[in-house]
Each structure stands twice: as structure tokens, then as C-alpha cells.
Amino acid sequence: MDDDTPPFFYVMNYASEAEGDVIDMVSGNPDWEPPEALREGLHEYADADTDAFQYPPSVGLRELREEIATRRGVDISQVVITNGAGEANHLAMAEGLDAMDGNEIILADPVYPYYDGRTNLLDAEKTLVPVDDDGHLDPAAVREHASAETAVIVVNSPNNPTGVTYGGDTVEELVDVAEEYDALLVSDEVYDHFDYSGRFTSALSIDSPNRVVTNSFSKSMAITGWRVGYAIFPREDRPDPYGGLVDSARTRHMLTNVAISRPAQTAVLQALRETGPEYYEQVRERMVERIDRFTAALEAAGADYTEPEGSFYVMARFPGTPGTMENIEMLIDEAGVAGMPGEAFGESRSDWMRFALVSPRVEEAAERLDEFF
Asked: Which residues does the UniProt record annotate as the domain Aminotransferase class I/classII large (predicted)?
């Protein structure tokens, strides 16, 4: 594998070129229908006047920002619509590095590879804090690693790849650590609709200038290709450097993207307004059924595995088969199942493999793994 090739793309390409039928459990692309109101909104937009086809405001459509602000209990001035949660995280991490003293970013291990990649891209020092045996990030461990050099702490709940969910006490303690060391907590909550534990607590529940919350509609509305996300920064009336973060982020966002797709924002807004809670409940029920079927097969195969409290990923460890890229290739070639190597997510779960349960063939994939092992 070329060192410059992201592992996700390498595995997907390898699977696509493999002989025989391969079940894709690599990418987090939902396989279910988006909300009906979203399709309707896009159809209606096609007949809009031509002025609706021009540049939207750089920070996002005002109506969409108002809807998000109302739902999240923040001021509209704090909301920036971004090119998915990816850009939202990049803005938050970059602004934190620029505004805070120090050049260190603290990440959980295992870590979503794009956080790691952005840390390298931003030329920051990286500190990985291993999670506990259950996959949870202990705030006390974060505090032990934090120092005057810490500028940013990145957390993700519900989590990719471990599937854990952080409750209110954990979130509050993480904010406390950020405040103690004058750092910025970046809380990626893109899987907030996929909480099966009832434990999920948003960092927005803590009144602090030391936190930025990021999110998107990619997973919750099954529209990963639309790239509509958002970041919620501290209020502008907060003391510097926190109060200046949102203005600086707007400028960085504008120079990078100019603006975000207007039809995508318009359709998302209509879906937000017209989609009831039953849509999200049905999706969660679907995922719980898949998790149960997949983990039962892992149990039969003698594998250790994480029991997802949220998101839609399972990490598994098979006896004598560590989570290397070579073994992922072997599973693709010999079992017809494509997952991700644990080594792509850091060191603490390098013996594990990660599987995305966003495929209608989850049960078949589980049977193949059971038979193989």
C-alpha cells in the first residue's frame, strides 16, 4: 500500500478489484432511504427562480442556521454551515491551534483516522490517549496527558470506531479539562441520532466558551454525498480568544469554500421541518437488529467484540488474526467480507478490525465470518 493512500480508499479499491462477491463493511454510507421531505424539497428547488441558483450566504442559509440554532439552544451567530462535519472539525481544530497557546492536539486511541490526518496537516503535535477496556475515554487520563502545550482536545460521541457513548458526567469532566488548560474541546456529535444507550449528552449542555460542537446531516438523513454539516462556536461576546473564534472560522470557511450547496441546504431545511421523530426511531431499530445479528455471529466465531452503545460500527478481534492490512486483504479474498484494519485507528486496538453495519447484507457477512473462523 502506498503510504500516501488513505486506508479507507485502499481497502475499498482492493475490495472492488477482488475476484468474487465481497460485502462492503468499510464505509459508513447508510443504505436506507432519506426522509421523504428531503426528496420533495430537492424536486421543488429544481423549479425555483434563477436567483435561487446563485451564491447563498457564505456562512449558510439564514433559515437553516435559524432552525439549527433553535433546535440546539444557541444564537444564530454561533452557527456556521460547513462542507460536512469534516470541514466543521477542520475549522474547529485549526482555529483552536491558532487561538490557544500551545501546539498539541489530544486524540483518543483508537482514533478516527481523519482527526489524525488533520493533526498532521495542521503541523500540530499529537498525543494519543488510550481508551479503557470498554472503549470509553477516561477524562482523568486526558487530564494526565494535558499540559500548557495542549491547544485542542478532540472527542467523538457516539464514537467511531468503538461505538461508545459519553454521558453527562464524562462530557462535563472533559470540558473541565479544556478549561483548566485553556484548550478548546472539539466535540464531534455526528452520530447523535444513533444513541442506543440513552446516555448521549451533547457538549452544548455545558455552558463553556472552551467547546465547539460539530455535526452534520450525512448520517442522520442518509445523505453522505450532500456535504451539509455545521459547527457551533462560542458566542462572540465571550472573552478572547474564545469570542473571536467564530469570526475567524467564518473567514477561513469563506476562503476555502466560498459557500455550501444551496439546493442541498434548502432540501435539508425542509426535511428538518417536516420529518418527525418516527423516521429516526425506525432507523435506530434497524441498527439495533443488525447489531444483535452481527454480534451473535461474532460470539459464535469466538471473537471479542465491542457492544455498540451508539453509531453503527463494531470492532472485533479474532483469535490469531490481528487487524493488519494483510489480514483485511485475506478476509476480502477468502471470506468475501471487507472491513477496516484496527491499525488504521491507532495503537490501542491494532489487533482488532472494524466493521460498518450499514449494509442490508449484515447477516450474510456475519455468517461468512463465522464460517471462515
From this structure: 21-368
Same fold flag, 7-34+277-372 and 36-274:
no
Query: Closest Cα partner for 58 from 246, 258, 247, 234?
Result: 258
Whether the bond between 158 and the residue before it is cis, its omega within 30 degrees of 0, is: yes
- Sheet of 353-356: strand order equals 304-305, 313-317, 353-356, 340-341
> Distance between CA atoms of 265 and 130, rounded to whole angstroms?
37
Residue 116 in 3-state DSSP?
helix
- CA dist list (Å): 129 to 155, 246, 294, 342: 11, 28, 29, 16
CB under 8 Å to 128, separation ≥6 — which residues?
107, 108, 109, 111, 346, 347, 348
The burial of 269, by beta-carbon neighbours within 10 Å (0-12 exposed, 13-18 middle, 19 or more buried), is given as buried
The CATH code that applies to domain 7-34+277-372 is: 3.90.1150.10
46-71: per-residue pLDDT in tens?
999 999 999 999 999 999 999 999 99
Report the chain's C-alpha Rg in angstroms. 21
**CA separation for the pair 358, 350 (Å, rounded):** 23
The fold of the 36-274 domain, in CATH, is Aspartate Aminotransferase; domain 2 (3.40.640)
Residue ranges for the chain with pLDDT beneath 70:
1-4
